[in-house]
Amino acid sequence: MKILQISLSLGGGGAERIVTDLSNRLVTMCNHEVVILTILDDRDPRNVLYMKALSPKVRVINLHCESGLQAKALWGVFKTIKREKPSIVHNHFSPPLLLFPVFGLSDISYIQTIHNLPESLWRKYGLFKKMVSSYLYKTQKIQPVTISPICQQSYRRLYKVANDICIINGSEPLKTTEAAKAVKAEIEEIKPSADTLVFIHVARHAPQKNHARLLDAFCRLEKDGYDFILLVVGDNYGSLADAYKDNKHIFFMGLKDNVGDYMAQADFFVLSSDYEGLPMTMLEAMSMGVIPISTPAGGVVDVIEDGKNGYITADFDEESFYQKIKQAINEKGRISPETIKDDYEKSFSMKICAEAYYKAYQNNA
Predict the structure, then answer these.
(1) How many CA atoms are closer than 13 Å to the CA of 364, on its beta-carbon side?
(2) Strand, coil or helix: what is 196?
(3) Could you tell me the pTM of the whole model?
(4) Cα–Cα dist 133/96, whole Å
(5) For residue range 101-136, what is the model confidence (pLDDT) as tens digits?
(6) Who has the most CB within 10 Å: 13, 170, 282, 333?
(7) Contact 10, 51 (CB under 8 A)
(8) First vs last Cα of the chain: how many Å apart?
């Protein structure tokens, strides 16, 4: 079996992390060939963040495009599939990318992972994306995959069909690197005291993450005299990072390829999103035993049990979010890192996720 994974890039996003980890697992599970096709130009370093984490057994093809659905990308995907002749094409980007192949190369099986809450994606789609996605899913020209029970419910409400496969997102455990000691010293340098609590948020700057909610809550913590620092790891913050450059509690760290080193210094992982699929960064935090605090965004509700393996708000109200952070601080030590790691291993590891995908490939090939 030859498996072709399609990703917008190998940059710092959740879907890109899934593609990287899943491909690495697949080449160790079987003797089948795994190829990754990326769309955005890999000469831009932002588009290859995970390349260093990729197994040398996985081959990468890049189309050098400026955007995901331009004509060059659509034609390039078609030509690559025709040339490579895979048994399975697994798309992690927009469904219209497969519009030409599903008709012109119909002897190949196509799988589409929906990496976010379908109803939230639908609100962002234009008419073309809505029509194409609905047609491809309902006719099962491609096999849709949802990534959590709440995402599955959203898909079935939206499309009024029950033809998806639910495969829970998984991640490889985060690990520290040779830079861990230097990162620890860096964090110790910016902590006001030895007892300072360290919060970490890992995400690119995007509207769905609602960074206003995040930063407002931590500004309130500062005014209320709490001893903490917040590390914001990710790119595209620009003027927002500039606005906080003199803040002694909130630090924008930029894009990192050694997130595990920073996560290892954290007491809490915090997420303020309006909607999600099932965030990889939260699973990675859990793999290191870091306590998650989150809004009830998408698949988060399928992972966090409030007060047992993390903290989750009842709603998206800013006051609820702030009070939940305070509760986590006041109850520090109640949830053990071992409990969180156990939950991750039992349900959210990439090993489990990859086995489920491989079974789907076999059933659809």
Answers:
(1) 28
(2) coil
(3) 0.91
(4) 7
(5) 999 999 999 999 999 999 999 999 999 999 999 999
(6) 282
(7) yes
(8) 8
